[in-house]
Amino acid sequence: MRPSLLDPLFAPITSLEGVGPKVAALIEKVVPADLGERRARVGDLLFTLPHQVIDRRNRPGIAGAAQGAIVTLELRIDRHQPPPRGNRSVPYRVFAHDDTGEIALTFFHAHAAYLEKQMPVGEHVVVSGRMEWFNGRPSMVHPDHIAPLSGADSLPLVEPVYPLTAGLSGKVLRRVIGQAVERIPSLPDWLDAAVARKQGFPSFPDALRKLHDPQAPLDVSPEASAWRRLAYDEFLAGQLSLALVRANVKRLSGRPLTGDGKIEDAIRKALPYSLTGSQEFALAEINADLAEPERMLRLLQGDVGSGKTVVALLAMARAVEAGGQAALMAPTEILARQHLATIAPLAERAGLKAAILTGREKGRDRSSTLAGLADGSIDIVVGTHALFQEQVVFRDLVLAVVDEQHRFGVHQRLAITAKGDAPDMLVMTATPIPRTLVLTAFGDMDVSRLTEKPAGRQPIKTVTLPLERMDQLVGRISEAIADGQKVYWICPLVEDSDEIKVTSAEERFATLKHEFGDVVGLVHGRMKGAEKDEAMRAFKEGETRILVATTVIEVGVDVPDATIIVIEHAERFGLAQLHQLRGRVGRGAKASSCVLLYKDPLGETAKRRLSVMRETEDGFVISEEDLKLRGEGELLGTRQSGTPGFQVARIEFHADLLEVARDDARLILSRDPDLKSERGQALRLLLYLFGRDEAVRLLRAG
Ligand code: ADP
Ligand code: MG
């Protein structure tokens, strides 16, 4: 149960004065949390941080105030000059002076009574706003703030500016956040005093106060101590919860898997190539993990085409040598079949039996596979989600490999592990996740990287071409086909509609068929499994030479002699996806090219994405660029928080804190694995504050 100490922060925002359902709905658009089904709370408001400030500390006096500057002036009111009756286009003017000169405060469509009350003649007031000089006369149009001299303290000299959404004024948001700040309870500090001191962190409540009530513009900088403190807290909450999950998984400890290397050798001998240095290295790391009694949780990260599959196969061979079974899960049916096609002949040469299980295996095939898994006569199974089904029982599953992991959720990853007695886990991803994100997403998961590609690969030439000039391409493709090459033609990504996606692919298929005849094939997600297989087979074997496809071929598909990929409406794809798609070519010894067809005019971000694609093939660089471009807010709308999965922490500013937080989390749990100590109790508060309550549930009672 959540400690009641936190109640004020978990109260709905509608408990704040002036926040009805309408304002609440607007506020929910700007808070950084991914609210999902829940409503915004006071704590969400507090994590809505200002992205800049208006500095009102400049008090130069009227004569010294520059055109356009934001200034604060202390004035004596001299007279009011309402507009002539019936002429609303003339503004209401209030004349005032200080020691240096006279100024006109100007109001359009003013309420005379209100202004008279706010600025009685003869009174001293403080006003703040933008200075304007016209023909040597100073004025200020609609000052941002007007306060009597006695109430000048209420005027924010350094005014935080929050992300806004249409219909929600800065004034309203500031007032509401001001109330939220007053509700911050006093909390025991969960940070190690030494860490806090070293980093110069204020306390959590002070950090929030400083960000919402800054005394100097630098106070709200993401690089300043207040924001860094919150970022650290958020990282620490994340690292702690990941470590708790991991500890929970590891508690079900695995068993050592070793073997005599005979099966592995047989497979190596059957390979038409030898492994790259980095494949060897990754395999050695994996085998070392397998040999440990602790469970393996390892991520194998390698750019598209770097050859992850064979590493997985050799690891599975080791599992079988140790007397167990191994499963390889693929995110799509096409990919599962492709994996089986690669693996089965090699496995067979080594005397192993491999089988496939997807949603399509029915009837006798399916029951014989199920029986083989249950009695252990099948050593390696390749499959899709179908592997999670209840009827699937293994005799002894010791290694689960998950391919293209980003397609699977955490639940699914865990579901496969339930099929064995704490099987070792190898997760493969082609998305080159930057190191920092690996840490945030997987915590302490060990990582092996394939850093080199198999020898003999040539760079892929990437060009961009406006859609209107598609004709040019047709000529080029005829030549390529005449020369015996193969072409992927990817149809546009159409948001949210399978229907339209398929139509556009079918239309493109028709026009290309008209142009090139029977050598054109088609594959899309709505086709029956057998039709998809047939399309892939025909393309692989060269009966078709152009394969029109939707993004079903995005991940993993391996037709090494395909040399051209055309991507229509490339501007609609994200960088990661473009990189994945491009990775379908350049997998053999021949030179390949990628043609990005785009529709003019391109937006700024789309332009940048396409030029990144032209400039580099390095998946690592591309994913960092992707992160930056997303960080610039395109995908996250008005949300300020640039780093996916985080509310206040921003990788581009706070990456250094991430590793400190990881080490801190490790240390904490090694001393107090169930967070029972006084500090442990305080850390539980932290987990709640950052929405990591699921981790609290993993703690043993107490
Ligand atoms: P990915 O890492 O994208 O999953 P794959 O495992 O599909 O890559 O491998 C891509 C291609 O490279 C396949 O055709 C595979 O047979 C080939 N390959 C893998 N390792 C090597 C190697 N060491 N030398 C040459 N070719 C290799
Ligand atoms: Mg792959």
From TrEMBL:
One of its GO terms (molecular function) is DNA helicase activity. Pfam families: DEAD, Helicase_C, RecG_dom3_C, RecG_wedge. It is an enzyme of class 5 (isomerase). Residues 289-450 form the Helicase ATP-binding domain. It catalyses: ATP + H2O = ADP + phosphate + H(+); Couples ATP hydrolysis with the unwinding of duplex DNA by translocating in the 3'-5' direction. Its EC number is 5.6.2.4. Keywords: ATP-binding, DNA damage, DNA recombination, DNA repair, DNA-binding, Helicase, Hydrolase, Isomerase, Nucleotide-binding. SMART domains: DEXDc, HELICc. Residues 469-628 form the Helicase C-terminal domain. Plays a critical role in recombination and DNA repair. Helps process Holliday junction intermediates to mature products by catalyzing branch migration. Has replication fork regression activity, unwinds stalled or blocked replication forks to make a HJ that can be resolved. Has a DNA unwinding activity characteristic of a DNA helicase with 3'-5' polarity. Belongs to the helicase family. RecG subfamily. This is ATP-dependent DNA helicase RecG.
